[in-house]
Amino acid sequence: MKPMKIVLAGQPNVGKSSLINAMSNSRLKVGNFSGVTVEKAEICFEHHCHLMEMIDLPGTYSINGFSSEEKVAKNYLNNEEYDIIINVIDSTHLTRNLLLTLELMNLNKKMVIALNMYDEAKKEGIEIDAKQIEAITGIPTVTVSSHTKEGIDDLLDIVHTYYDNEKRLIPTINLSDTFEEELFHLTKFFENKSFRYKDLTSREMAIKLLFEDEKFYSYIHDKPIFAQIQPILLIATEKIYTYYESENINEIINDEFHAIAKGLKAETIICSRPKNKKTLTNKIDDILIHNIFGVPIFLFFMWILFQLTFTLGAIPMDYIDMAFAWLGQTIGNEISHDGLRSLISDGIIAGVGAVVLFLPNIIILYIGITLLETTGYMSRVAFLLDGFFHKFGLHGKSFIPLVTGFGCSVPAYMATRTLKNEKDRLITLFIIGFMSCGAKLPVYVLFAGAFFSPEQAGNILFIIYISGAILGLLMAKLLRQFVFKGADEPFVMEMPKYRFPTLKLMYMVVSNQAYSYLKKAGTFILAATIIIWFASNYPNNGTDNPKTQLENSYLGQLGKASEPMFAPLGFDWRLSVALETGLAAKEVVVATLGILYNVGEDATETDDRLLQELKKQIPLPTAIAFITFVMIYLPCFAASMVFAKESGGYRYLGYLFVFTTIVAWIMSFIVYNIASYLI
Amino acid sequence: MKLSDLVTNQIAIIKSINCETELKKRFYSFGMIKGALLKIENVSFSKNTIGVNIDDTLIALRFEEALNIEVEIIEDTK
Known about the structure:
The complex is a heterodimer of chains A (679) and B (78). By secondary structure, chain A is α/β, with parallel strands linked by helices.
């Protein structure tokens, strides 16, 4: 039997995902199929022995807009095959939600209205007469609550019965008198001519004509009756234009729909809540978006999130690290062939380990971000911070990925998904690297320790971090001005009511993210680590001295070849090689320097011998230029791969490479020359 | 007067919205349309963003976007 294909459409924050979870019960199979950047979720389950397939479209306020979600929703609804639409509505915001319902009605598909969050509405003193809505609109309507499971079975039954029913129910909404009068003539015309289009009624065709539906126009345009209907239509539109004092049909429709939605609400809702009484959300908002305390409170939340991400996350990270080291060694001992052993334990296992290592960070951070988003706090954050970030061409929500960047760029790139506007997201992605990640810290500590007194070292670290952040903001401004030009996207956004997500929803979102990270990043990073492993171990010249080996490897050769490029910054081939191995992971920079400055590969940033060697062999201006370069250039391979995925293509990774390298080179050059001049 | 001139807790009615289609559509999808009632609930510290309550929904918008909306005060609950 063919599965029943059900599409869930609704505005953001109406609880579509929770509703799907409630409907499918525990028999859920969640898979993301990526059409565009915005994902649609798909789920299958059984109801009375019939397989149901559910498509969760991204939440949209309208299906006629230009945002990426709206395009995904519109394309899907217009072009894909499906059986029934469930229009999910937030019962507590009927008018606004009905605007979308009215748009969906014009798709002329089977549709059911689910008035979700009805338990919440009742608590707020709102009572909705679903039967009345059904009577006015002609569309089956049920009140449901995915939270209490109330009405879920009814909804499933109604959907199922409607699916089995051959006939589509025709919407019975009345438009304003002006429209109805013209519709009357047009409908009569179609009826007299027995004109058919798909399964539409004459009235539905007439509405399509008046609403200037392009698809229908291109169909009817080639038909003989077009010549006859044209004069009637011209008079009709002329009358409507005159009445509404506008020639923009979309605006007229909007006015019309708004009036209908308001009327529908007035006739179907009983609100016993006293006016002007503060809701809980209002009270929470008085504190959380207070014009003075709002920002400090937010910073406090962020501080907690970061403490959790990077201190709590460090615990499993240590174990994962140990487990992979143990695994590499144990398996390595079993392999007698040198090359193969090195490939498997140093290349593949270490490479996979490096990916899995970030998993605890990502999971914790994602729990935090999901909480911020699903509770409705994220849009408040944008509200609070947009003033500052907008000055630099960024969005208020850019703050979270940017701050995350101080910990690790991998989750930071993933956090940019909260930015819905393409340009905002790209600019944020491009400047995340300027926020020095945790892995760069060992390099900074090493150099600060080698070249500055212990009292100064702390200040130097602070200066490094702050100057990186400031540079990043300036770059954002530059990118906005010269690269991602064009008008800003309007900021207008909803600050939804505060809600707590269910554990199930949290689990679904977080596990999905973790899985997609492991799958997509894992494969690429694995391939890349093998390449880097190969480049630093081959050609194998049979020496036991790691320095000679690295010096003569492909990577070493590359370092020497690129030496002239770095010469103006004062870097010799060894520093060049260290920068290049640093492309794999920033921690590797210290290990590479250890090998190249002859103190062994197990060197750490606090190794005294390495400190002394560096101090002896590297002039101070070079050291400062080197720090500057590390601060700015391309993040590690894992991060680069995630960047490519989040930005939407390797093309962008290419741009990022060129952009960061040029900026790093120029800044290092400036710093090197100033320092040389001063010292 | 303009929506941006309104202060917290004043209730006003939208008289007209004068801006390009994209922004207008955005306003519309939140129910911000000629004849709708609104009330300013929050103003951010830097006064760059304001929170407007319309039909029980809190909408955040930038000050410069609020300049496009012409309103008339109908009630002052300060």
